[in-house]
Structure formats: structure tokens, C-alpha cells
Amino acid sequence: MKHRKEPPGDKNIIGTRIVALRKAKRMKQKEFLARLQTFGLDISPTSLSRLEGQYRLVQDYEVVAIAKALDVSVGELLGEI
Q: Which residues form a coiled coil (predicted)?
């Protein structure tokens, strides 16, 4: 697994949460991409990597699909308690 050499970007607030939740569920990016497809979100591995690194904006419909794929609420994904 390659580690990021650059600090996180500032394009979204959920990138680091996605990584943490995905890793807590022991899910690799490839598996996560497959789960996203089952919820109607087809994004490339590069796009997911940029999203997780906070270098890409996230659309509202993507937030919903990501939350479903991670089996969490949208509020939890956004950092609400």
C-alpha cells in the first residue's frame, strides 16, 4: 500500500472519514469500489483516491452512496455524533 506523500487537500471534509471507516471494516479500495457500484456510484480508482485524499469535491448523491456502501449514516460520515 502506498502512503500519501502530500498533506490532505481541502476539497471535502469526508475523505479522511471514508479512509478510517473503510479500514475499520478491513475493506480495500478495490472492494469499496465494487460496493459503491452496487449502490449506483461508478467512480474510478483514481477518483476515489483523490476523494479520500481530499483533493476532489464530493457530490451530494455520492455522499449518500458512500454512506450506504460503508453501512453508516450520512451524519456519521460527516462527523456528527
A: none
Task: Provide the grid cell at 66.
Answer: 458512500
Q: Closest by alpha carbon to 59, among 74, 38, 80?
A: 74
Q: Cα separation of 14 and 2, whole Å? A: 20
The model's pTM: 0.88
What whole-number distance in Å separates Cα of residue 81 and Cα of residue 77? 10
- Contact (Cβ atoms closer than 8 angstroms) between residue 58 and residue 14: yes
Alpha helices in 1-81 (DSSP H): 15-24, 29-38, 45-52, 60-70, 74-77
